[in-house]
Design goal:
Blueprint (H helix, E strand, L loop, with lengths): L15 H9 L2 E6 L5 H16 L3 E6 L10 H4 L2 E3 L5 H9 L2 E5 L11 H10 L3 E6 L10 E4 L6 H16 L6 H14 L10 H12 L4 H9 L4 H13 L1 E3 L4 E6 L1 H7 L10 H4 L7 E7 L5 E7 L5 H6 L4 E2 L3 E6 L3 H30 L1
Parallel strand pairs: 1-2, 1-4, 2-3, 4-5, 5-6, 8-9
Antiparallel strand pairs: 7-8, 9-10, 10-12, 11-12
Helix pairs in contact: 2-6, 2-7, 6-7, 7-8, 7-9
Bound molecules: manganese (II) ion.
Length: 362
């Protein structure tokens, strides 16, 4: 197991391949994973602003729309949403010389953007750069910086911009860049409470605040922003939670009917999973959402050294040790059946392995 190192940050030299690629490029597209979150969006906006300040042409193009509570970031830098009809976005992709993928390390996570990126790469000299902090990166880019010790992609982009600043000997951090990075780090650390919140993360956050990020404003905009439908969905969801297997598992299924009845959207389900882990006995929390197109989205959270990303990987997904997810290409009924059996087997196997490890350690 790789433990997050105390205060570790990549040395300037380790950022050199990314810096070289980015200084050479002129026309950039920055993107993040489907169903973007604060880390992906904040990192994108910060990097776009910094590259633009260096005279680069930069467009942010995402596979899916920006959730309502992150819309304010679009005032700092425009975010385009890709769909196969968006001529402008397709043109940007065919014109650019570097695509930067943030907060994801699998080509699948780029959604509908991937076929266009892959096509442009085959045609010309398009470079693909990835900066991420999830486990088990796929080998599909020209430059990959994937550091799972990092609390967030924002933490890595902060390190990258610091190294770039050193190389160019100029000040890159503006209040806008500091705010966007603060959003990235705050949201991915659960407001500085999750396991990877190292002393370095607090130092970094302090530095961003000193450079102009406003913690109270960012918190208020992101967390005190529920719509009435989202609040109603939360109520319906909380009463539908099941605690299974003597408290080991908390389980929640959100159907399309539930979303329709409350008038809520898929992204409104994102805030719910944290409640599933709020019961102390729960070791694995599972949220299953029936999607409109017949597919099924599953999110996992865990306590301790339970690698839920291994569970997600079994179905083509991935993520972190304590937070992961996947997409089933089939109905939620089938997904629930498959998953519950597999989850129980996974937990039994985890316990058996840990027992062996503990005994051999004595
Ligand atoms: Mn992240």
């Amino acid at each position: 197991m790789i433990l997050p190192e105390y205060g570790r940050t990549l040395h300037s030299a380790e950022w050199s391949p990314v810096i070289d690629e980015l200084l050479e490029g002129q026309h950039f597209v920055i993107t993040t994973h489907e169903n973007s979150d604060g880390d992906g969006l904040g990192s994108e906006v910060a990097l776009a602003l910094a590259l633009k300040a260096l005279g680069k042409v930069v467009t942010i193009v995402n596979p899916t729309e920006v959730p309502p509570n992150y819309q304010f970031l679009k005032k700092l830098y425009p975010v385009h949403v890709f769909n196969n009809k968006s001529e402008e976005a397709i043109q940007e992709l065919s014109l650019c010389d570097v695509v930067i993928l943030l907060d994801a390390n699998l080509h699948d996570r780029m959604g509908s953007l991937w076929p266009h990126v892959s096509f442009s790469r085959e045609l010309g000299s398009l470079k693909l750069v990835c900066i991420d902090h999830h486990l088990e990166p796929e080998d599909f880019t020209d430059v990959m910086v994937c550091e799972s010790y990092a609390s967030s992609t924002g933490e890595l982009v902060y390190g990258f911009l610091s190294a770039l600043q050193e190389r160019l000997a100029l000040e890159l951090f503006t209040p806008e860049i500091a705010s966007a990075l603060y959003v990235a780090v705050m949201t991915d650390t659960g407001s500085f409470r999750f396991p990877k919140t190292t002393p370095y993360v607090y130092q970094l956050a302090g530095d961003l605040v000193s450079k102009g990020a406003d913690p109270a404003e960012m918190y208020d905009r992101i967390y005190n922003s529920l719509t009435t439908p989202a609040l109603k969905l939360l109520g319906a969801a909380l009463s539908a939670i099941s605690i299974l297997d003597n408290g080991d598992i908390s389980w929640l299924f959100i159907s399309q009917d539930m979303l329709k009845a409350t008038g809520s959207k898929l992204f409104d389900t994102d805030l719910i999973i944290r409640y599933l882990l709020s019961v102390p006995s729960v070791r694995i929390a599972v949220l299953i959402v029936e999607m409109q197109d017949g597919r099924t989205k599953a999110s996992f959270r865990s306590r301790g050294n339970i690698y839920v990303n291994h569970l997600a990987k079994k179905y083509g997904g991935g993520g972190h040790m304590n937070a992961a997810g996947c997409l089933f290409q089939f109905s939620s009924d089938k997904a629930q059946n498959v998953l519950l059996d597999d989850l129980r087997a996974f937990l039994r196997e985890h316990d058996a392995t840990n027992k062996v490890l503990n005994n051999s350690g004595k």
